Automatic annotation (TrEMBL):
It holds the Pfam family DUF1501. PANTHER family: BLL7424 PROTEIN, DUF1501 DOMAIN-CONTAINING PROTEIN. This is DUF1501 domain-containing protein. It comes from Prosthecobacter dejongeii.
Length: 453
């Protein structure tokens, strides 16, 4: 994160003059220029002109049989103790521990037949790219650089920023004991300039200009430009060019209070904050927090101009004590997801913002000796909302044990093709060059889901 500090020579942020504001627009590396301001003003008059995605990664893979696909005809060791309840859509039932979502099923699409993980190994990669992890990849930086980029990075590269003061791709994912559980989605071969902007914790303070004057900001920018020009002449990897773009984005963000405003939940009404709730900001084991305020933050960020926001929630890898742990996770997810979806509808954003929540695979039909469900890559579940999609329906079905898809198996790549199409990106015509210069398609031949569009 780029932090600028120095003695005070005049106020910025909320206290600058119009002359100072226009001077920001003249910064050499491309800040908020006058044309940008005029364009933003015109777009504001015309209404929202861009689409956004909120992707909720349920770290570790939730038990689909206990949430959206309960099997009451199965033996007790498979069906578990939970009961299904009816929803506001006739014929659709979900777990009794998701009553808020049940009351708004007309705004949701449960998918009961997700598949795509080849091995059932924990990695958020498939949730963020729609592809199986690169066998040569892994946690090593070189492997991650060679990997396919995440959806957020692709959208950042192909669509750019909807607002120069807001990063295109934002990840609400604190560090986790298991690194994939803390990943917002990697930029892969697109490079660091398309990484997720991660404003969590103390990093928010780095967004503030500490009373630095505009002339000093100009000097800092010019100095960086000079150093980067020298390094660029010596560098052939493209890394410096990527950092140039990153620096430009950082200056754009630093010279506006828009991102800080979006992150400031105090600007929301007490009623709205109560609807979302708080949850727990501490990491759950080696996973992510059960932080309900991240759902509200995600809505504020897409409303302010972010194109893709990823949100990591909980730690659903219940190899033991499946039912007690699910009773901690599912009611909180029910509250956060339902509040987000209703909020988007109330604000008229349900056609402009798509929401998807899922984990990397499903769980075993049979409960093990420790009372848990193990990894099951053959089938899992997901939930979609918004996007102007045809909601109020279930897609796919599994057998009586919840172990095999029997109707309309849905691959992760199909959902990604649908999301790219929603964003105005043709996944079959747009390509991106990998590190060897070879063009790569965004999805492996998968088509957008006709049931949704």
């Amino acid at each position: 994160m780029l932090t600028l500090s120095g003695p005070s020579h005049g106020k910025l942020c909320d206290g600058y003059s119009r002359r100072d504001f226009l001077r920001i627009g003249g910064l050499a590396m491309g800040g908020l220029s006058l044309p940008d301001l005029l364009k933003a003003e015109a777009e504001a008059k015309a209404g929202r002109s861009f689409k956004s995605i909120i992707m909720i990664y349920l770290c570790g893979a939730p038990p689909h049989q206990d949430m959206w696909d309960l099997k009451m005809d199965a033996p007790l060791e498979i069906r578990g103790p939970y009961k299904p309840i009816s929803t506001n859509v006739a014929g659709i039932q979900i777990s009794e521990h998701a009553p808020r979502l049940a009351k708004m099923m007309d705004k949701l699409v449960p998918i009961r037949s997700m598949y795509g993980s080849p091995t059932g190994a924990h990695d958020s990669f498939i949730c963020y790219t729609g592809r199986a992890p690169n066998p040569a990849g892994g946690a090593a930086p070189t492997g991650r650089q060679a990997d396919h980029p995440s959806l957020g990075a692709v959208v950042s590269r192909l669509k750019g920023q909807a607002d120069p003061a807001m990063p295109a791709f934002i990840g609400l994912s604190p560090k986790a004991g298991h690194p994939p559980y803390g990943s917002p989605g990697h930029p892969g071969y697109l490079g660091p300039s398309h990484s997720a902007f991660r404003p969590n914790g103390a990093g928010v303070e780095d967004l503030k200009l500490n009373n630095i004057s505009m002339s000093r900001l100009d000097d800092r920018r010019a100095l960086l430009t000079g150093f980067d020009q020298f390094r660029r002449d010596l560098d052939h990897s493209g890394l410096v060019e990527g950092m140039d773009s990153f620096n430009q984005q950082a200056f754009n963000v630093l010279t506006s209070s828009k991102l800080l405003d979006a992150l400031n939940l105090e600007k929301e009404s007490p009623k709205t904050r109560e609807r979302y709730g708080k949850g727990d900001p501490k990491n759950y084991g080696d996973g992510a927090p059960l932080n309900l305020e991240h759902f509200l933050m995600a809505r504020r960020l897409v409303e302010a101009g972010a194109r893709v926001v990823t949100l990591n929630f909980g730690r659903w890898d219940f190899h033991d004590r499946n039912y007690p742990q699910l009773l901690r996770h599912l009611p909180l997810f029910d509250q956060g997801m339902s509040a987000l979806v209703q909020d988007l509808h109330d604000r008229g954003l349900d056609k402009d913002v798509a929401v998807v929540a899922w984990g990397e695979f499903g769980r075993t039909p049979t409960v093990n000796a420790q009372g848990g469900r193990d990894h099951w890559p053959r089938v899992g579940g997901a939930m979609l909302a918004g996007g102007g999609f045809k909601t109020g329906q279930v897609i796919g079905a599994t057998d009586r044990l919840g172990g095999e898809p029997t109707e309309r198996g849905v691959h992760f790549g199909e959902v990604f093709a649908t999301l790219y199409q929603f964003m105005g990106i043709d996944p079959h015509k747009n390509t991106l060059d990998d590190l060897s210069g070879r063009p790569q398609y965004l999805v492996d031949g998968w088509q957008a889901m006709p049931e949704l569009v």
